[in-house]
């Protein structure tokens, strides 16, 4: 089985968010970049297939050279090789089109991505990719088993789970549950040493047009200070929620 | 040209988000000087949408659409969009629509903006404001394609009445080959889900153990709220995973979020920032949650919550 794992390179969850150049650019100053947390769950599941059922695992990112440490980290976790499509990732559809090209050229059976990336939170790329290459697709995936080419996958729904039967070739939008958090892997010394020798292939993008572009960023309006209510006076809280906030 | 809104329903009944997207679609149609069409699938009371401005409802009824399937639903929406000559398609942001919308966007060759929180600030170029960086920012996004798909974030716009004399037409959709088949649905029934709830009562490690959740559930009951929790609580197995909210859990966009014994770590706040009014109950006045909250009580949950339940019961009866 040939598995492709899509890796988004995103600011660490605790990053302070600032913008520069008249609020048109994200300020990367002092920001630590990591593998998108949702992708990390999917990558770990790919490692499980590799070890238990046999698979070759390639990781891919659409991005400029600054994303290579993130791909190296994925290699250190155990992926066999990496591909970087040399393009600034600015729009979901154009990223999905680049990935579709990689999928078509690589003959992958299974593509694992994360449900969404935590920077632009678009949640677009996995579904668009599945549609572009005409693979089956399961989003919000919290569990999957593969037997030959048949797949049983579970996705989260409002208030519960749905179990689905489908088949390879398949694209997954994964999240916590596809593996548990305690099973996520931290690269060890040996993995890091080996990652240096693994291939990281840079490919040039195919011609695509963006469907969307970001004109500017904004920060939420500053919040007023919290109104504190005395612990002995919950009546006041109820009255504030009823009369002032009008939520009960 | 028209604006098409997909008004989602469950068991024949419109979701609240359906009224929100129709209200939103009405305004977008006005901005574009175009008319509004609402698409419904297996819904019972199509006339309800006239109240929110849908002059034309396209009703699809088909047993093979009884359970949601992303590819099939995307294909049905596409067929209606094409039949109606719709240049803009508007959806809500439920787990299901987030699954179908990207497939629809590719099918229509349309640019897609998800998590949209306001009406377009301009229609030429077509510009919408979206949530980004897990609610720590917004991006003003231009959709440059001729056709556009918009996902409206829950509770971000609101529900507004603008009654019209509407009419409903039926539509026979061709059902696509799905490739993915539902074999089992497991849902906690009889409980308000986090996605639907207007009020969410959430508790963290400050509650010390699963045996203390009785009061959290009772508070939620009194308020008609859904229950939720912080990540360590679900990791410890005190509560089901489906209740974990935050960066790596579920997002919450309720009108009221009550956080009991939750510190307010940045990853937790990332999931609840979109909630309108936040109340925190915590023993530690330095807990970061107080900086994010609108109302707060510095106090012991084990004393405050039972009092709150008692007083709320009296308030509800009055
Ligand atoms: C990559 C990553 C992703 C993460 N994603 C999430 C996520 O999605 N969601 C999430 O929640 N967390 C997430 N976390 C974890 C997060 O950083 C915090 O550890 C977590 O939110 C803390 O949960 P807590 O507030 O319940 O527990 P604690 O940090 O233990 O805080 C408990 C709080 O309860 C208060 N307290 C104690 N006793 C009482 C009492 N009797 N009455 C009232 N208050 C009391 C304390 O003062 C304290 O503020 C993530 C972390 C990482 C690194």
From TrEMBL, chain A:
Query: An example Gene Ontology cellular component term from the record?
Result: cytosol
Top-level taxon of origin? Bacteria
Write down the InterPro entries for this protein, in alphabetical order: ETF_a/b_N, ETF_b, ETF_beta_N, Rossmann-like_a/b/a_fold
Electron transfer flavoprotein alpha/beta-subunit N-terminal domain segment(s): 23-212
Matching Gene3D superfamilies: HUPs
Alphabetically sorted, this entry's keywords are: Electron transport, Transport
Per UniProt, what is one GO molecular function of this protein?
electron transfer activity
| SUPFAM superfamilies registered for this protein in UniProt | Adenine nucleotide alpha hydrolases-like (SSF52402)
Write out the similarity annotation: Belongs to the ETF beta-subunit/FixA family.
- Put simply, this protein is called Electron transfer flavoprotein subunit beta
Provenance organism: Polaribacter reichenbachii
TrEMBL record, chain B:
Keyword Flavoprotein in the entry? The reply is yes
For whether the record's keyword set contains Ribosomal protein, the answer is: no
What biological-process GO terms show up in the record? fatty acid beta-oxidation using acyl-CoA dehydrogenase
**SUPFAM superfamilies in the cross-refs:** Adenine nucleotide alpha hydrolases-like, DHS-like NAD/FAD-binding domain
Q: How is the cofactor bound?
A: Binds 1 FAD per dimer.
Keyword annotations: Electron transport, FAD, Flavoprotein, Transport
Which sites bind FAD? 205, 261-268, 282
User: Which GO molecular function annotations are given, in alphabetical order?
Assistant: electron transfer activity; flavin adenine dinucleotide binding
Which Pfam families would you find in this protein's record?
ETF, ETF_alpha
Positions of the Electron transfer flavoprotein alpha/beta-subunit N-terminal domain: 3-187
Q: Which cofactor names does the annotation list?
A: FAD
Family, per the entry?
Belongs to the ETF alpha-subunit/FixB family.
PANTHER family named among the record's database cross-references: ELECTRON TRANSFER FLAVOPROTEIN ALPHA (PTHR43153), ELECTRON TRANSFER FLAVOPROTEIN SUBUNIT ALPHA, MITOCHONDRIAL (PTHR43153:SF1)
The molecule here is called Electron transfer flavoprotein subunit alpha
User: Which species does the entry assign this protein to?
Assistant: Polaribacter reichenbachii
């Amino acid at each position: 089985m040939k598995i492709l794992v899509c890796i988004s390179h995103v600011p660490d969850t605790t990053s302070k968010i600032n913008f520069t150049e008249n609020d048109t650019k994200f300020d990367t100053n002092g920001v630590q970049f990591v593998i998108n947390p949702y992708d990390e769950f999917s990558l770990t599941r790919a490692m499980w297939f590799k070890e238990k059922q046999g698979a070759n695992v390639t990781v891919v990112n659409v991005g400029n050279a600054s994303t290579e440490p993130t791909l190296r980290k994925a290699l250190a976790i155990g992926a066999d090789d990496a591909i970087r499509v040399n393009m600034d990732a600015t729009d979901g559809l154009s990223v999905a089109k680049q990935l579709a090209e990689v999928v078509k050229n690589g003959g992958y059976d299974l593509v694992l991505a994360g449900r969404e990336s935590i920077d632009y939170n678009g949640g677009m790329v996995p579904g668009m990719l599945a549609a572009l290459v005409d693979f089956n697709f399961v989003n919000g995936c919290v569990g999957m088993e593969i037997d030959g080419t048949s797949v049983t996958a579970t996705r989260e729904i409002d208030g519960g789970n749905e179990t689905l039967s489908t088949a390879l070739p398949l694209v997954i939008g994964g999240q916590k549950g596809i593996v548990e958090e305690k099973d996520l892997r931290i690269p060890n010394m040996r993995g890091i040493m080996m990652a240096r020798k693994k291939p990281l292939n840079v490919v040039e993008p195919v011609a695509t047009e963006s469907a969307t572009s970001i004109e500017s960023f904004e920060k939420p309006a500053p919040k007023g200070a919290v109104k504190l209510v005395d612990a002995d006076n919950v009546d006041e809280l109820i009255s504030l929620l009823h009369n002032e906030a009008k939520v009960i | 040209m028209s604006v098409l809104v997909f008004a989602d329903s469950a068991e024949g009944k419109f979701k609240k988000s359906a009224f929100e997207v129709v209200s939103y679609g009405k305004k977008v149609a006005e901005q574009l000087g175009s008319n509004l069409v609402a698409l419904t699938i297996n819904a019972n009371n199509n006339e309800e949408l006239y109240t929110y401005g849908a002059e034309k409802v396209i009703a699809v009824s088909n047993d093979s659409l009884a359970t949601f399937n992303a590819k099939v639903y995307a294909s049905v929406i596409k067929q209606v969009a094409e039949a109606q000559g719709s240049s803009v398609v508007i959806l809500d942001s439920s787990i299901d629509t987030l699954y179908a919308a990207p497939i629809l966007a590719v099918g229509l060759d349309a640019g897609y903006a998800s998590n949209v929180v306001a009406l377009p600030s301009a229609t030429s170029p077509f510009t919408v404001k979206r949530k980004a960086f897990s609610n720590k920012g917004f991006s003003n996004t231009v959709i440059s394609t001729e056709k556009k798909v918009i996902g409206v974030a829950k509770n971000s716009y609101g529900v507004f009445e603008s009654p019209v004399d509407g009419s409903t037409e039926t539509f026979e959709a061709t059902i696509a080959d799905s490739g993915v088949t539902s074999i089992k649905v497991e849902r906690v029934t009889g409980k308000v889900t986090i996605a639907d709830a207007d009020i969410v009562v959430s508790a963290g490690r400050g509650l010390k153990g699963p045996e203390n959740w009785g009061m959290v559930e009772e508070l939620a009951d009194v308020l008609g709220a859904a229950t939720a929790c912080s990540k360590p609580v679900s990791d410890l197995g005190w509560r089901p995973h489906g209740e974990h909210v935050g960066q790596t859990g579920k997002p919450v966009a309720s009108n009221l979020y009550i956080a009991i014994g939750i510190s307010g770590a940045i990853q937790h706040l990332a999931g609840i920032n979109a909630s309108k009014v936040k109340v925190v109950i915590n023993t530690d006045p330095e807990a970061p949650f107080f900086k994010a909250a609108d109302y707060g009580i510095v106090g012991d949950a084990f004393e405050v919550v039972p009092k709150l339940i008692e007083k709320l019961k009296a308030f509800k009866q009055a």
